[in-house]
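Our consortium's second objective concerns turning raw sequence data into structural hypotheses that experimental partners can test. To show how far this objective has progressed, the report includes one record in full. It was chosen at random from the queue rather than selected for favorable results. The single chain below, 207 residues long, was entered without modification.
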Amino acid sequence: MILRAKHHFIIYPFFRWYSRWIVRRSFDRVEYNGNFHEKGLPVLLISNHTTWWDGFWAMVMNLEIFRRKFHFMMMEEHLRRHWYFNYSGGFSVKKGARSAIESIAYSAELLSNPRNLVLMFPQGELTSVHQRQPHFQKGVERILSQLKNDVQVIFVANITDYLSHRKPSLYIYFEEFERNDFKLQAIQKAYSQFYNKCIEQQALLSE
């Protein structure tokens, strides 16, 4: 049995407030680079995973741009340890376990509701921000293959820079993956191209 997402009437609003507060307190500024065209569809957010900040950044982005009910997949052992995330939209996945099939089906179920957003880190683990060729697990392909409705797949790349500031600035790049080819190789290749383009654009901003 997986741990299904809950949205506690106290913990979930606190998580939204805390995410905004800690990001504002810790970063010199937050800059969004991308366009989101509202289509009234559920949103699958595919993001790089380079730091524990990633979930907080995604929550703030959801509050500012997508404005949907927030859900995120989290390793079961971490979710049990940090139980409060389960009451803030977190649901469990366990690599190599039979329950992983249930986690995929549950993700597809969430994405049948246009009011929902699901955040995924397809690499399945923390990786260096300098890794230009991400390796995705098969979960994202399996989720999309089970969908019986349209969904907006949004690529996200989070990049930080200090430059001349004491606090880092956060640059959130995003774009919609609009192709109909939801095979793992196609998604991974498209995300890799997107991510490298973001790195190059960020380098130009830093000059």
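The partners drew two points from this record. Residues 184-205 form the longest helix (22 residues). Strands lie at 29-33, 43-47, 69-75, 90-93, 116-120, 152-161, 169-177. Both points have been shared with the crystallography group to help prioritize constructs.
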